[in-house]
Design goal:
Blueprint: H1 5-12, E1 25-31, E2 37-43, H2 49-72
Antiparallel strand pairs: 1-2
Length: 73
């Protein structure tokens, strides 16, 4: 499933003012046509696999740190 300009516009709407969308890697939890939960992963064609891995690793590290903070309180 390829991203459309409309999809990228919606993602750009999530950015802080002044930021410009260049590339993205996303992981999406969704329901498929059978009602089963699925995990979908996408990245823009211009984003190298190592860049996507780095971005998602950074996001995972940030979430892990936040969870540790929550557990500490």
């Amino acid at each position: 499933m390829a991203a459309t300009p409309n999809d990228e516009s919606r993602l750009a709407d999530l950015l802080p003012d002044g930021c410009v969308l260049l590339e993205y890697a996303v992981s999406i939890k969704a329901l498929d046509e059978d009602g089963d939960i699925v995990l979908l992963n996408y990245r823009t064609p211009g984003l190298a696999a190592w860049e996507a891995l780095g971005m998602l690793t950074c996001a995972a590290d940030t979430l892990r740190a936040r969870m540790q903070e929550w557990e500490a309180t």
